[in-house]
Amino acid sequence: MRKLPIFADIVDPARFAVRDNQGMKMRAIAVWMCAAAGMSAQSGMPGQVAAPVVNLNVVAKDARGQPVMDLTREDFQVFEGSKAQRLVSFRRAEPIAKRVMQAEPNEYSNRAGVAMSRVTVILFDLLNARFEDRGYMMNELTPALQHVETSETLFLYILTLNGTLYAVHGLADANTGPGKTAGAHPWTEDIKALLDDASRETLRLRPIWIDVDTRVRMTYQALESLADLVAAAPGRKSLIWISHGVPIGLGPQATSIYDQVDYTPLLRRLTTILDRAEVAVYPVRQPESLAPGATGSAASAAARQSAAGPDGLGITLSTETTLEQFAELTGGHAFMTPDIRGAIERAASDARMSYLISYEPSLENWDGKYHKIRVTCARKGVKVETKQGYYAYADQAAEGDREKAALETATGSAFDTTEIGVNARLIVYDPANHEADLAIRVDAADVSFAKAGEVGTGRLAVSVAGYLKDGRMEMFPSEEVAPRLTAEQRETALREGIRVERRLVLAEDVEKLRVLVYDRESGAVGSLTVPLERK
Known about the structure:
Number of helices: 11
CATH superfamily of the largest domain: von Willebrand factor, type A domain
Strand content: 25-35%
């Protein structure tokens, strides 16, 4: 079997030439009603797209707190500092049932005509909770989860006393996505029994003595691991973090064994990872002891938190700042009271409808510093919510970042992505020679067309990934599809789709293919998994 390239190699045009010379049979894309198709030196391959962009997931609400769903690109203006920014893409992100193109014989579709709810993960943080609050807050979870609107894309983890993640109901075990059994028993109906089991497992752990610095670093490591798990789900994700929080820094004091420690770099790095994975964080803080019968006033509890913290050490812990920055830098909302149900409802409301907006700062802006963002809406009475800034790390200013990141997410996801409707079928599959011909149809209604007179031009990147039985993947080069359609042609394309064909020579043991369609105008993605067998 020939060596499979890693993803970083795939986006190198030189690698494509090598693969072609080694016998890669790649028939030129045949696009129905396309006047221009093929590779574009200006915008074709990942690594050759223009400058880096900042992506915003913007929630718009009216005076009653209800989502506003009919705003347009012209309604928004984005400022970085005091300077207005040029928007390079705009689209709505709404988990509604998408239209489905009428299937042709033996076709697969990435749409089932039902809405895909946004993933919400609850993390109950035992590691950073006071002893007297752990059982009480676990009991508070039961009524909060029993009243959720839907449990199909709701997941629950516990950050244990030894810094590991315990899945009460985890993403890896969930019966969600394509193929989910209709009418399956909601796991939240068994939440009391599940939490009783979790309590027995997690509260009996006997970790070694953990100092504050170790606890903070364990927390960040666990949150990053959770971010990796959640990133594979499509679209905006919500992380509800129930915690006392961790300090933003440790200051030297007479009773402290520490020098001064600043955890801001850890926070910046993790919130950047979460933001790029489209994860909005909704911290729910436990500001003082809440257990029935606990003694002491709120003021004295707050003083104890500042003076000693959960570990009883004489070290200043600025936990509120940490939780607030997690929300501000990811576009979530910080709850400084233990309102678990309110956080779940807020995250669900924000996920129902949002706008994905990208703008393009100058390369000089990528200076490693914090850049404040302000988004305004021209329509009166509309309040917009999004992340309030970002850290402009120079290593994120790589060209072509949007397309590469989108393809990486789509290939690594357990779900097919439905922002763009995709149908496909195997025309020919020859296992003996490891060859496959795919007929692909892209829903023209989901494609952004730039108007020039009576003609609209789209810019799509179409690629295919092959998944092997041993878990490895091979990625075939993207090719640009640039349909130029008159109004009459577009009406036909809306009915029949934009047609594309790919001929592939596969590695041995490939068991399924995934078609990937990326809209270079809007940043939208569609993906469809096709088993290597006829229906």
